[in-house]
Each structure stands twice: as C-alpha cells, then as structure tokens.
Amino acid sequence: MQQRAIVVGIVLLCVAVSAGCIGGLHRSAIPPSIVPVETEDAWQQCTCSFPFEQTVHEITVSIDPAVYYGAKEADKLLYLRNDLTREEWLPIYYLAFIDDAHQDAFYHALIAELRAIRAEASLDGDRYLELCTVFVQSIPYEDDAPHVAPKFPIETFADGGGDCDDKSLLLAALLAREGYNASLLFFEGEQHMAVGVQCDGPGFRDAGYAYIETTNVTYIGVPPQHLVGGIELGSDPLVIPVGDGTLGYGRCAETAALESALDICRERLAVLEEEAGASYQKLQALEEELDALRTEMDALSRAGRVSEYNRLVPEYNRHVSAYNRVRDAYNGIIGESRRYAGIHNYIVSHAHDRAGTYAWLIEQGQL
Question: Cβ contacts of residue 22 below 8 Å, gap of 6+?
C-alpha cells in the first residue's frame, strides 16, 4: 500500500470578508475552487481500462479543457476567516474539491459510463459499489512530491493518476452521487486517506464504515496490514461524511471470510516453510550417508570382498527406505505449500472479483 505526506495549505485571513462577495465562500473559510480558464483547446477524450469480475472494461469521458485547466491552476490553499479546529476546517477543505459545481458535467458523464456497465452486467447495489471502487483503485497510483496539494477529481481522472487523497476524493464523490453513505477517512498520524462506506456491523474502528483502500485494488472492508515502509494504521481516522446518501455495503462478511482465508494461508505457509526446511536437511543428511555407503560398498565390490559387501546391503536398503519416506514427506509438504500459495495468490490477484473469488473458495472447500 502506497503512502505519501498529505499537506493542506492554510492561510488565516487578517481582514474580514463580507459574506457573498466571493463565489463559493464558506462562512468561516474560503476553500479552493475552480475558475474555468478561457482556451481554444478541444475537449479531450480520456480513457481508462480496468478489470471487473470476468471482463476488462473501458470508460471514456470527454473532459472540458476550461474546467480542467481551471482545476490545475486553482489556488488550493484554505483561507480561514476564523480560528477553526482541525476537525472543523479539514472537512471544509476536502469537500471543496469534491463539490465544486464546475465538475458536475464530468461527474455526469463518468457516472453514465459506470451505469451502462451496471445495466449490461445486471449489477446489484453491492456489485455496483465494487465496480466504482475497482475503477478508481485501478487508476495508477502516483507518488507526488511532498507538500503537493490534492487534485480535484477531474484532474485525477484526466491525468490518469493520483495518490491516496486524490483517488479517495474521486471515489467518495462518485459513491455519494450514486446514493451511498460515503465518507473520507483521514489518518493524521500516518498522513494517509481512504474511503469509508456504510456497512452492517461496527465497521472499521467501530465507525460504522467499511474501509476502502484506494491506492490499489483490494477488497472492500479489508484495511491494509501495512503502509509503505511497514507503517501500520494505528490512529483513529477523522471521518468526513460526503453527501447525504443512505445506501451501504452488505458483503463485508464475505470479504472478511476472504481475508480470514488469506490469514490461514499465510499461517499455514509459515509452518510448512519450517517443516520443509527440516525435512530438506534430513534428506541431505540421508543422502550423504547413502553416498558414503555406496562408496564403501563399491570399494568392497572391486576388492572382491563379497561377504563384507553383503553385510552392508541390509543397512543400505534401510537407508534407502528412510530416504524415500523423508522424500515423500518432503514432496507432500511442497505440494501442500503450493496449494496454499495458489489459494493465497488467487485471492490476492482477484480482488477485482469478490463474487467470483468467494464462489471459487466455496468450490475449493475453503469456506
């Protein structure tokens, strides 16, 4: 899982600004906003391909260059009119990137593409949520230089890349507009951002939201074990609700079972690795003993010392039998290791297909 520092630019205004004098003005702050740029550039066709379930899908959206350049050139500082707490101004800041009305045409076109896939594949609400999630997760992760402000969602899509906050803003925007109860999860201690969606049960850290990692393709409800550099998500996130949707995700029990299967595979592989190592050492020792016996017996045979040679034959055969038993045990360990590794790798490499992976595990007798 990728990670980079999240930096928010803040400026405290010393002069009060009258409400309504600046477009998009918040009562307590002036957040970032898009001012379209006059340009003669044609609308740009941007395409994204990604796997979902059994199909590789392709989405193409026309991007208004005036809005895109306006997003690129926007002042991405947050100007505070009052001394707000971090919990108060962070939602103002991040929601400004999502809710800027100049992106409405972009959202409409992108959602139309996603809905077309939903209709063709007859997706229910959970699978449609997974479709939207895998689409954003599949956008390449780009580790921006430190101290870079977030992108507006239209930038992330048109650029074909973004980091944790860029991609989380895009996914939360889509889910909220499709009626899901979505939120941004901001981890200040780890300088990381993810997305949450309402779920049955306590959710991540008892917040009522299933965790969604956006930097790569992973299952909904399964947080990463570590961020880059071995960093663990130890802090509780600031939950920033996005929109007023009411839909949730109902497959957390299945994704939890997939994660449990992964844990079982990892634990079993660790045990098998030790057993394989011990068994291999036994094989090497027995092989050395057999080689020594062969050498001795060959010398006796060449010297014509038949009786002494014959006395060693039972001992040699016992060593051969012992070697074969240990070899069979070793091969069994290797075979079991390959089976668990295959299950593990299948689950990890098919995170774009929760439904199919869950059914496959049932077929394999793992659930």
Answer: 30
